[in-house]
C-alpha cells in the first residue's frame, strides 16, 4: 500500500509532467487523418486536449459506471459522421479544449446533482462529439488511421478507468480539478 508521501510525490510528478507537456505541445493535434495506423494511434496521445479528454472519459466511467462509455461512443459516432459530411461548429478547437474543463467541472459538481448520470453523460458525450467532429473534418477516408486512433483511445480510456477505480475521494477531486484547470489552460494557450 503506497504511503501518503508516495501518493503526494506521484501526484506532484504527474502535475509537473503535465505542465511540461503544455509548454511543448500545441493545444490541439488536429491535422490530416490520412496517414497509417501508427499516426492514428499517436494522434490521441500527442494531442494534449485529446489525451486529457480520454483520461476524463475513463475517470468518469470509473466513478459512475461503464454505462457512460455509451455516451462517449455515441458522441464519437455522431461527431465524426457530422464532421465527415462537412459539418462545422464555430470555435470547435476552443470548444475541444473547454470540453476537458467541462468534464472536470461535472466531476467536481456531480455530488451536488440529484440525478448526475444524465448531466454527466450529456457533458461527456458532447465533449467527445466536438473532438470527433474535428476528426471527421480531417478524415480522408483511410480506415487504418481511424483504427489506430480507436485502439489508442480505447487503451487510454481503459488505463484511466482502472486507475480511476483505485482513487479515493480526495484523489478523484484532485484529478477532476486538474482536468478543469488544464482544459482552461489549453483553451487560453493559443491566445
Number of strands: 0
Instruction: Give the H and E element order.
Output: HHHHHHHH
Distance between the termini: 43 Å
Assign an overall shape: globular
Helix content estimate: over 70%
Instruction: Name the structural class.
Output: mainly alpha
Number of helices: 8
Question: Could you explain the architecture of this structure?
Answer:
It is a single chain. By secondary structure, the protein is mainly α. 79% of the residues lie in helices and 0% in strands. The protein has helices at residues 4-24, 37-46, 48-64, 68-84, 92-109, 116-138, 143-166, 169-188. The radius of gyration is 16 Å and the shape is globular. The termini are far apart.
List keywords for this structure.
mainly alpha; 8 helices; single chain; 191 residues; 79% helix
In short:
With 191 residues, the chain is mainly alpha-helical. It has eight helices and no strands.
Would you spell out the secondary-structure blueprint of this structure?
Blueprint: H1 4-24, H2 37-46, H3 48-64, H4 68-84, H5 92-109, H6 116-138, H7 143-166, H8 169-188
Amino acid at each position: 500500500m503506497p504511503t501518503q508521501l508516495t501518493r503526494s510525490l506521484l501526484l506532484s510528478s504527474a502535475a509537473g509532467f503535465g505542465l511540461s507537456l503544455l509548454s511543448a505541445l500545441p493545444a490541439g493535434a488536429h491535422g490530416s487523418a490520412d496517414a497509417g495506423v501508427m499516426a492514428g494511434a499517436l494522434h490521441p496521445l500527442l494531442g494534449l486536449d485529446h489525451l486529457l479528454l480520454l483520461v476524463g472519459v475513463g475517470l468518469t466511467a470509473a466513478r459512475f459506471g461503464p454505462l457512460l462509455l455509451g455516451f462517449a461512443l455515441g458522441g464519437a459516432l455522431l461527431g465524426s459522421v457530422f464532421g465527415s459530411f462537412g459539418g462545422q461548429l464555430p470555435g470547435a478547437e476552443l470548444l475541444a479544449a473547454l470540453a476537458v474543463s467541462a468534464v472536470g467541472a461535472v466531476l467536481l459538481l456531480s455530488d451536488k446533482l440529484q440525478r448526475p448520470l444524465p448531466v454527466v453523460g450529456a457533458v461527456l458525450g458532447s465533449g467527445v462529439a466536438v473532438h470527433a467532429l474535428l476528426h471527421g473534418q480531417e478524415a480522408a477516408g483511410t480506415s487504418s488511421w481511424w483504427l489506430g486512433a480507436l485502439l489508442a483511445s480505447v487503451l487510454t480510456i481503459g488505463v484511466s478507468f482502472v486507475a480511476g477505480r483505485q482513487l479515493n475521494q480526495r484523489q478523484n477531486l484532485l484529478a477532476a480539478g486538474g482536468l478543469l484547470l488544464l482544459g482552461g489552460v489549453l483553451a487560453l494557450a493559443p491566445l
